[in-house]
Backbone:
């Protein structure tokens, strides 16, 4: 009987361990983004991961790298730059663009427009006026990615309009961490709104991240992105409860899902925080895991065990 009791005790303990694992998994946020990563910015601990190694298009998240390369070159931010027809064409600008051909702004204003309002023509102009032109600029972007050990990342242009600008959630966490060290990127990417003189009149622009425009989040760095191939994307460094987190959300379906996922992460980690109701999408649908652009292993399940991001 003693042996049987011992066996029964072992089986009971195993069952309890299994239920404990299921309960822990249930406590994690049910994120709707196809790839996601939540990292403690101070310790590197990975709190939540979903397909974090899948190599996917990143849209305008690209502009964080555009900003770093521009600042690294120590180019004069007060220098005037005029938007050309070639800039507009490369930026796929609409005929009635908000920053039309012939607009003259300073490099600093273009940098802010690229980070805050995600203006593609501003990013194109920054690349064109880099010493050596756009080709040299893109080479510097890829060199910077290599220096940051972003092995799954590749850039072909400075805006993110190309689906060939690819990265992983893990690499983008490194990008956000690096970008947070630039005071100007932190300031410009989290400016709620600003006005610029265009064709003799003041034209207002707003931040593309609704959480920045609100007042319930403490955000240190922010960037959104969207092209059809990438879905809706969001990266942030933000204070949640007592922690500074890096949050990466890629390939979200619907206009509001990336914001909803950010709020779900905060509700998970910050007791007492209640997110506003998420607007209903007209054509909600479930998106499968992202399809890698290049060879990479996607993690099919959430991995919330403590690991360190290098």
Residues:
């Amino acid at each position: 009987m003693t042996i049987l009791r011992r066996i029964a005790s072992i089986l009971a303990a195993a069952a309890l361990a299994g239920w404990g694992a299921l309960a822990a998994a249930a406590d994690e946020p049910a994120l709707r983004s196809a790839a996601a990563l939540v990292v403690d910015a101070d310790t590197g601990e990975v709190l939540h991961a979903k397909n974090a190694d899948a190599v996917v298009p990143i849209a305008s998240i690209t502009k964080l790298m555009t900003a770093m390369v521009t600042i690294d070159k120590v180019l004069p931010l007060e220098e005037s730059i005029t938007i050309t027809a070639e800039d507009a064409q490369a930026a796929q600008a609409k005929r009635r663009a908000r920053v039309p051909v012939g607009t003259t702004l300073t490099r600093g204003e273009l940098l802010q427009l690229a980070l805050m309002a995600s203006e593609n023509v501003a990013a194109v102009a920054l690349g064109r006026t880099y010493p050596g032109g756009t080709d040299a600029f893109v080479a510097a972007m890829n060199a910077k990615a290599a220096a940051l050990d972003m092995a799954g990342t590749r850039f072909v242009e400075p805006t993110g309009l190309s689906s060939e600008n690819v990265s992983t959630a893990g690499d983008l966490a490194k990008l956000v961490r690096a970008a947070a060290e630039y005071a100007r990127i932190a300031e410009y990417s989290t400016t709620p709104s600003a006005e610029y003189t265009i064709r003799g009149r003041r034209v207002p622009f707003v931040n593309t991240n609704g959480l920045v425009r609100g007042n319930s989040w403490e955000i240190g760095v922010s960037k959104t992105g969207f092209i059809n191939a990438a879905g809706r994307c969001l990266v942030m460094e933000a204070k949640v409860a007592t922690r500074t987190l890096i949050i990466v959300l890629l390939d979200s379906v619907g206009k509001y899902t990336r914001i909803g996922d950010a709020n779900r992460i905060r509700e998970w980690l910050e007791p007492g925080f209640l997110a506003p109701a998420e607007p209903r999408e007209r054509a909600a649908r479930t998106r499968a895991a992202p399809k890698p652009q290049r060879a990479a292993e996607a993690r099919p399940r959430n991995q919330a065990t403590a690991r360190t991001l290098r």
User: Anything to note?
Assistant: The first helix runs from residue 2 to 27. Confidence is low (pLDDT under 50) at residues 1-26, 283-288, 293-310. The longest strand covers residues 218-227. The chain has ten helices and eleven strands.
